[in-house]
Amino acid sequence: WVYDYYMAAKADYVLWDDFKVLKRSIVELGHGTPYGYWMNSIPSYTLWWFNNVWEYYLHTEDKEFILAMKEDIQKHLQWVTDNIESDTGFFKEKHAPFLEWVPMEEEEYWNAFHALLMITKKNLNQLIAYVPELGSPVKWQEPNLKEEDFLVNSQALIIPLMGILSGVVSDTKAIEFLKTYKSTNPISPLSAFWLAECCSKFGLQEHAWNVLQIVWGYMLEKDSTTFWESSILTGKRDFHHNQTTYTAYDSYRMSLCHSWSSTPVQWISRYILGIKPMKPGFREVVFKPLPLAELRYCSGSISTPFGAIYVQVNKEKNGELATRVIAPPEVRII
């Protein structure tokens, strides 16, 4: 499942330096899905596949692998292009929606799907800028999406978040929404991660940390030792049954051990340890650990193609952070 391993990879990039399984997944879906078909039969999953290819390159600078995938990238790019109206940027035909387990209206999905299309175009063009052998930049006409269509009173949190991530929602409206949003059912770890990312984009780090505490903290409070596929913040002890109450699945279908919910690992590495890649292969990183109110001490390492970056952070009595970072010589820290 493309979206599953796309989200799971966010933890992989932090923890491991061996991506054989991830690369095999990218290859099998890219090569194994012929022109004229959507990956996993879901149009949004083909778009997430492109984003996965970009993020793999961002974290590894593995140009050899990207060039080996050139034919498949171009094949799926052509299929998406052939399904878009050249004058409007909208897909020619509506299709079965899926972006998130939380139910949403068809029109909500349609808007969010096209926001994902805009995100995909941006990331593909970033990839092509670094690997020009892939061909010309993507020139999809951007659809005329309206900000107000993402700020509707929807139970699906992913709708406003896709508007924010794509830039359709203005910075002012995005900050207003993020500051006032209260995590509540139904919320999934998938959307909770994107909520934390959106908060961090605008410097609302305490809000982002609060999201992680509420959703993943609830799992810890209930003695979970694994990440759940979905979440219910209130309910009876039978979490496995409760999680299916807002999905199309029958009871006991949702997983209580699901790698797409491991995303806090990446958020913690980027904002608690403070290491965020700015150029492919971690050749340039921002080092900016967060002075969270609850933070006293933390240390850790982040894998890069040149070796690990080691970080240590201490909060001093005056509240300021004393930091120590050791990085390979190929990594420029800013």
TrEMBL record:
Domain Alpha-L-rhamnosidase C-terminal as annotated: residue spans: 274-332
One GO BP: carbohydrate metabolic process
Stretches assigned to coiled coil: none
InterPro entries from the UniProt entry: 6-hairpin_glycosidase_sf, 6hp_glycosidase-like_sf, Bac_rhamnosid_C
Superkingdom of this protein's organism: Bacteria
Annotated protein name in UniProt: Alpha-L-rhamnosidase C-terminal domain-containing protein
Species of provenance: Lederbergia galactosidilytica
